[in-house]
């Protein structure tokens, strides 16, 4: 199948390349319009959670009481007080259009709050609060963008805080982060590709396919927005992922194409065989990555589910682009793939099994004592993951922004300089089952809520039909352990007889998100593991190899999780990485890293085991085949990992902290997997399994021989064991080779 695809695209190379160029131009014009097509907002919340259900009730006649936007004023003249600049601020606030605004409160229009609460302790700052008519974050941003300039006052500096401003600022930073990441990564990628291939022509091919896929990802995402709501926060992850995977896949194919040419194949044969072998690896790797992302649909939050839909589509596009455009480009390039050589000295390619190579010797070293080696390496990985035991999970909030962002500055200023922080509001909805709740009982219940640690006040503020609203003010940081305990105690407080209660607000939303992810993550992991197991069985016809692969991939993830807790929650390396630790880790982080890193781990596993299988089928020696397979793939796997680190390292430069967490986590996971796991732990465990690594029960072995995804022969042209080579080996029909 893959050989036929390579042959077809090479034969029709003119039309394939023309279609790719036209599509790329279209993507640059129409696809980049995706930035204005996101209608799903951030979408971090679980629609079925208690906090979201409370928000739905508050959207009705009962009404919300929240401060969606907080506008902070301070004179540009040092030391000047509100008494001096207040008239300019009041005039500005009076001129703000009221369309889309349910309430605008300030020192001059205090609403239900004491006037003094709007002015800082030193009298030099003041704030105004806005509640929008809609609680949808994207709709709030649309209104904010229309009226933002109307808040300006002469001689006064203005900063915007609150959830609406935070969302607006995250959206703005997202686009600039992508541009900066690509500006930094593309030149580095080109240099690394030149160093890897020692040829400028060969280096340009993966970059060309990667650029095609990255731009095409915008088209894929824009099409998806026509059918479903996509979170505005997915664009960073998806575009960088598409670029990274396409370069990885192109690296495999170009490397195999050069091997075939160097072994004596003609250009057409080299294209066909590269697509049949490396292309098969790309297809299975793409399936593994797509499966990992498909697991995100287990999560009800729009952020995670839309990330799943978008990532599966983009991964599929990366595979299709790599298996169609690249073979056509290779056919055009031919032997010129080695032109414009860079004279760096040393070896520039593998000419066959290298029994003196560094990775060959290392593999034999760990396989001489496989039990000790396995236990030692597993102990190291578990030790790296140990810090995860003390993790404190958070949800995205203003903490994700850089320290100079308005929303973050406003939040810090309100907490430090004002007696009342208007952002620290929660709401309890009291719902009567068949009759309105008794007002006296609601008041008494509010008194009980006010006694909970961290709550400063709890006041009934509205009664409508069978519902009542209690507004609570609190002091703990919404992402702290104290806030988590506060939410637990509030929800554990018995409600009035005949009623049920719903609590909402940032601390409650954080508790609900963390609970949802904790409940669904094991199911996602089980789904990904089971389906990956099946895909790997289809690739190799073994029952034990897929199980081993899943376990080893989870170990590399564990090491990444522990490192992230150590770095971001505990604050180590914060100066080097440029962030302010908040004593917590975003709860979405493990989900995304499981999805991305697990798929990438399967990517490298398929590539490595495909080569090990080639050697196994030729020799039947379980130890030597592993050593040779590791040696023949180590350079390309480490190169692919390094290139991917450069791409996903773009996340590390992000201004948005939870994107930085994802970048650091992926870099650690990829490096650990490509070196410690693939180079050391895989050989040790393969030596433990021996010939049983390729075992399957006889009925499954026969079924796989008939229906498994296998293309033969798979060894480079002219090598022993390949038709056309000096010694033709028999084709195997069983996962176990004949005795030798």
UniProtKB/TrEMBL annotation:
It comes from Streptomyces antnestii. The keyword Transmembrane helix applies. This is MMPL family transporter. Gene3D superfamilies: Multidrug efflux transporter AcrB transmembrane domain. Residues 720-740 are annotated as: Disordered. Keywords: Cell membrane, Membrane, Transmembrane, Transmembrane helix. The keyword Signal does not apply. Pfam families: MMPL. It is found in: Cell membrane.
């Amino acid at each position: 199948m893959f050989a036929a695809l390579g042959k077809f695209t090479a034969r029709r190379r003119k039309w394939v390349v023309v279609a790719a160029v036209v599509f790329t131009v279209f993507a640059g014009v129409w696809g980049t319009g995706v930035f204005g097509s996101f209608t799903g907002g951030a979408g971090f919340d679980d629609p079925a959670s208690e906090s979201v259900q409370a928000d739905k009730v508050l959207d009705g006649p009962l009404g919300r009481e929240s401060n969606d936007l907080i506008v902070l004023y301070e004179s540009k003249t040092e030391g000047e007080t509100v008494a001096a600049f207040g008239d300019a601020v009041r005039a500005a606030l009076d001129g703000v259009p009221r369309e889309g605004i349910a309430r605008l409160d300030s020192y001059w229009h205090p609403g239900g709050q004491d006037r003094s609460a709007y002015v800082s302790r030193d009298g030099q700052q003041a704030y105004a609060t806005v509640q929008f008519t809609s609680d949808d974050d994207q709709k709030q941003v649309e209104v904010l963008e229309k009226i933002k300039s109307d808040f300006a006052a002469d001689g006064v500096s203005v900063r915007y805080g609150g959830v609406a401003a935070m969302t607006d600022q995250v959206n703005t930073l997202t686009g600039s982060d992508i541009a900066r990441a690509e500006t930094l990564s593309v030149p580095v990628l080109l240099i690394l590709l030149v160093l890897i291939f020692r040829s400028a022509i060969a280096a340009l091919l993966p970059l060309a396919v990667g650029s095609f896929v990255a731009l095409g990802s915008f088209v894929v995402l824009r099409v998806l927005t026509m059918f479903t709501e996509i979170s505005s926060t997915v664009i960073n992850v998806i575009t960088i992922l598409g670029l990274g995977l396409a370069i990885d896949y192109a690296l495999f194919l170009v490397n195999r194409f050069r091997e075939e040419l160097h072994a004596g194949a003609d250009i057409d044969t080299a294209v066909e065989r590269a697509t049949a072998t490396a292309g098969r690896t790309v297809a299975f790797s793409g399936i593994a990555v797509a499966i990992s992302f498909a697991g995100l649909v287990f999560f009800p939050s729009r952020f995670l589910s839309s990330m799943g839909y978008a990532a599966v589509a983009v991964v599929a596009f990366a595979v299709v682009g790599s298996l169609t455009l690249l073979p056509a480009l290779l056919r055009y390039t031919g032997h010129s793939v080695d032109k414009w050589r860079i004279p760096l000295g040393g070896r520039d390619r593998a000419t066959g099994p290298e029994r003196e190579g560094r990775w060959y010797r290392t593999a034999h070293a760990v396989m001489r004592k496989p039990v000790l080696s396995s236990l030692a390496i597993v102990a190291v990985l578990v030790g790296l993951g140990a810090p995860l035991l003390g993790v404190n999970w958070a949800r995205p909030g203003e903490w994700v922004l850089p320290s100079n962002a308005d929303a973050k500055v406003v939040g810090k200023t309100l907490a430090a300089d004002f007696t009342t922080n208007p952002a620290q509001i929660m709401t309890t909805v009291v719902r009567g089952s068949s009759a309105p709740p008794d007002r006296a009982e609601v008041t008494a219940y509010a008194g009980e809520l006010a006694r909970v640690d961290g709550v400063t006040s709890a006041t009934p503020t509205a009664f409508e039909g069978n519902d009542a609203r209690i507004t609570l003010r609190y002091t703990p940081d919404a992402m702290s352990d104290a806030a988590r305990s506060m939410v637990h105690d509030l929800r554990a407080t018995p409600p009035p007889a005949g009623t049920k209660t719903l609590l909402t607000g940032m601390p409650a939303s954080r508790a609900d998100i963390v609970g949802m992810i904790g409940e669904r993550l094991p199911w996602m992991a089980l789904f990904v593991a089971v389906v990956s197991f099946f895909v790997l069985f289809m690739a190799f016809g073994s029952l034990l190899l897929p199980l081993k692969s899943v376990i080893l991939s989870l170990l590399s993830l564990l090491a990444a999780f522990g490192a992230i807790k150590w770095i971001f929650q505990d604050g180590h390396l914060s100066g080097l990485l440029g962030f302010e630790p908040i004593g917590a880790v975003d709860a979405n982080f493990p989900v995304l890293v499981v999805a991305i890193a697990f798929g990438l781990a399967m990517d490298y596993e398929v590539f490595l085991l495909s080569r090990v299988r080639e050697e196994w089928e030729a020799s039947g020696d379980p130890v030597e085949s592993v050593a040779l397979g590791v040696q023949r793939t180590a350079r390309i796997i480490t190169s692919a990992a390094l290139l991917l680190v450069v791409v996903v390292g773009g996340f590390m430069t992000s201004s948005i902290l939870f994107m930085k967490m994802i970048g650091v986590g992926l870099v650690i996971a990829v490096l650990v997997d490509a070196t410690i796991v693939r180079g050391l732990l895989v050989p040790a465990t393969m030596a433990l399994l021996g010939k049983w690594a390729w075992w399957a029960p006889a009925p499954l072995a026969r079924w796989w021989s008939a229906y498994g995804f296998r293309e033969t022969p798979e060894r480079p042209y002219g090598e022993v064991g390949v038709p056309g080579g000096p010694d033709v080996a028999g084709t195997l029909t069983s996962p176990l080779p004949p005795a030798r």
